[in-house]
Amino acid sequence: MEQRIRLGLKENWQQFAWLVLVNCFVGGMVGLERTVVPLVGTQEFHIGSDLFIFSFIIAFGVVKALINLVSGALADKYTRKKILIAGWLAGLPVPFMLAWGPSWTWIIVSNVLLGVSQGLAWSMTVNMKIDLVGPRRRGFAMGLNEAAGYGAVGLTALLTGYLASRYGLRPAPFYIGIVYTVAGLLLSVFMVRDTRAHARLESASIPATEAGERAHKPSLGWVFRETSWRNRNLFAVSQAGLINNLNDGMSWGVFPLLFLSAGVGLEGVGWIKAVYPVVWGAGQVLTGPMADRFGRKPLIVWGMFVQVAGHIVIGIGLFPPLQAGLTGSILLGAGTAMVYPALLAAVSDAAHPSWRATSLGVYRFWRDMGYAAGAVMAGLVSNWLGLYWAVHIAGILTFIAGVVVWVNMKDTPKFSQ
Questions:
Q1: How far is CA 273 from CA 28, 58, 71, 150, 155, in A?
Q2: Where does residue 407 rank: exposed (0-12), middle (13-18), buried (19+ CB within 10 A)?
Q3: Cα 138 to Cα 291: distance, rounded to the nearest angstrom
Q4: At a CB cut-off of 8 Å and minimum separation 6, what does 89 contact?
Q5: CA distance 17 to 9
Q6: Cα dist. 248→75, 308, 404 in Å?
Q7: What are the distances in angstroms from CA 249 to CA 8, 301, 370?
Q8: 241 vs 103, 232, 287, 364, 371, CA distance in Å?
């Protein structure tokens, strides 16, 4: 007997819970690199150029962005579950290459594979949760999804910093990545069910006469233009997402080198690197429902400005390095927690379900190009002006992005009144 398809968190809580757990392992794979890999470049491979060290982030960001762009179309063609499994298969070699790769080229190639894996697997956990819950709990769903993923990023960054301080930079910190990939793959194969039928059910209930929506499946080019610049809400969201992840890409490469050079120990660096994504992740349990209750725009605008405050604390040098790093990272995490689920929910609000997965892919293309943009900016600025100036430039760009949202975005409905 075929199971009846229904929308809602209560109606689909078991599948939703499995997807939250899967995304913990997806996020943990990124956390493997947050503390240790930049230091592998400087201390083990003796790389002197900041831009060259950050090349692994550039590779990751560009590949993940490109995979995000096509992940929605692939999901519509092959089902969400198959694409989720493919993401885990691409990630299987990553922890082995990070642990035992004999040259920096191996680290870069591992990040190409990691970008493929993240672009497929994380995209599918986002789309599948949105499919399951329907429009009224969308912010809450994204809050839980991103809380699971980025909470795991932070905890893994902390754990790898501890392991590196006790057992060396390689291979011990990367053993946990083997556990993540195997567990994530097995759960995706045996416990997760596909959700495309849920998206079709929602699509059938929504009229296609509203501005910017089509009843039929539009082309990738049409959705790319609509999401990137033609729809003012989607444009504002896309540029904010790019700058948000520019901050993350900058901090990924800069913070370990900056704070280690300022006299902070490896465990302290691990705490600084962990606090940012842990606050970012845990905070979304609150900010996701807030985006449903108060609208998306206030969370996005003020979240960008809170991130600016984090840059100021780190960059002005009024506090001891460890204190500045922890305080600034808390502010960066809090601001990002405000922004992240609201951005995803805003895209889902503006895009018709018939092309929502593709629009989310386009948004996540621009958002994750921010990793590469942040790494390139940080590498060039650090080489010319020093590491602190990379923090200053990121803060200026974040302020501008917040103003762009303030001016251009029309707020979305409040669903949980």
A1: 13, 19, 29, 12, 9
A2: exposed
A3: 9
A4: 185
A5: 10
A6: 27, 13, 19
A7: 34, 20, 7
A8: 33, 14, 16, 8, 10
CA distance 204 to 106: 47
Residue 207 has a pLDDT of 59
Q: Mind giving me the DSSP string for 59-127?
A: HHHHHHHHHHHHHHHHHHHH-HHHHHHHHHHHHTTHHHHHHH-SSHHHHHHHHHHHHHHHHHHHHHHHH
Residue 16 neighbours by CB under 8 Å, 6+ apart? 9, 129, 132, 133, 141, 144
Give the number of C-alpha atoms closer than 13 A to the C-alpha of residue 73, restricted to the C-beta side: 14
DSSP 110-152: HHHHHHHHHHHHHHHHHHHHHHHH-GGGHHHHHHHHHHHHHHH
8 A C-beta contact, residue 344 and residue 303: no
Match 């942040």 to its residue by tokens: 374
Residue 134 has pLDDT above 80, yes or no: no
Residues present in the chain in total: 417
Inter-residue contact 52 to 67 (CB < 8 Å)? no
**Residues 127/364, Cβ–Cβ less than 8 Å:** no
Mean pLDDT of 114-142: 85
Measure the CA–CA gap between 360 and 234, rounded to whole angstroms: 10
Confidence category of residue 216, pLDDT binned at 50, 70, 90: low
Alpha-carbon dihedral sign for residues 366, 201, 141, 176: negative
Start-to-end Cα distance in the chain: 37
C-alpha Rg value of the chain to the nearest Å = 20
Q: What is the pTM of this model?
A: 0.84
Contact, 301 vs 307, CB < 8 A? no
Residue with tokens 């807030």: 290
Task: Give residue-wise pLDDT tens across range 284-302.
Answer: 888 888 888 888 999 999 9
Can you spell out the DSSP letters for 317-379? Answer: --S-HHHHHHHHHHHHHHHHHHHHHHHHHHHHHHS-TTTHHHHHHHHHHHHHHHHHHHHHHHH
Give the mean pLDDT of the chain: 89
Tokens (6 digits) for 198: 């849920």
Q: Is 2 exposed, middle or buried (0-12, 13-18, 19+ CB in 10 A)?
A: exposed
Cis upstream peptide for 171 (omega within 30°): yes
